[in-house]
Amino acid sequence: MGQNSFSNKIVLNNGIFNVSWNFNASLDTFEFLLEVRTTGWIGFGFALNAPTNMMDYDVAVGGVLSNGTTYLQPGMSIYLVWAYHPSVDAEPMSSFSQHPNDARGVMQQTLIPAAITPTPTPVTATPAITATPVVEVRPMHFANFLQLDNNGNYNVSWVYNNSMDTLHFMVEVKTTGWIGFGVATQAPNMMMNYDVAVGGASGGAGYLWDYLTVGRRLPQLDRQQDWMLTYFREENSVTTLRFYRQRDTNDSPNDIVIQPGTSIYLVWAYHRSVDAQPSSFPQHPNDARGVMQQTLIPAAITTTPTPGRTDTEQRRLEITILLAVSLGLIVVNLILLSMGLAYFCRIMNTVAAK
Question: Which stretches make up the DOMON domain (predicted)?
């Protein structure tokens, strides 16, 4: 993403579609910046629920025309179209009555006036005003943190989102090349059936692809891409990636279901300098890969129920309470002979005292 982006950033579609935004509290407005690898139209918007067969999405569609102008230019006239029904309301997601012929129309209008270029007036030079730069908010590691090698070259952290049933990861690796990270039910086993993602940063863009390893050779690209990149950065020969996946992707046998309370093998590798392409990337060095067994999602905590009292025990308890109330006095003596201390506690029944 470019240097002029806002501090809040999301990388979508493996770095092809990047969005950043800022909220202006004083004006109660959002500002967005989109960077998309396309020469066609771009769509972006919001929805309360999705995916819903594209129903009720609030979206904007824009782009840059072949002559270098945007879709809506200052000084450009467009058509305003309008209609209404005199008495019947509309229902969302349903049909509504057609407007009468005299209750609709079209009008051509220039919404944005053409820019007025004033004649410059000579003025005394004044010191230039330096704009305050936008400070990028860099993500921090998640609560669960592991150093996967002995030298601190490969670090990973993660968190499990129970409400979304997703696992979120952040890897920080001393490399400018590709980074591999994944899970396996058995490892090491000649790199068979590892569910992995390979990603990195190249040319100012991030990338991440979902693979299934098939031995010590180039892994096969998964048709269903389930590892999703959300952040990337390459600085001072260190690459940082954030990504997530569903705990259960429903993509068997290409993906592994990560079960709560069950240990799994974390598999990792990287190349120190060369980035990956979807269908080809160089093999990692022997000292730049590894395996570690770990439980990513703790088992659910089950409260042990307290055994219930029998009928006989319950009657004894009730009789004891009745006797204590009738006497109106409970005396407890605890003598700690081993410590040479005596503790005397007496509780008087105030009702009886009266």
Answer: 152-271
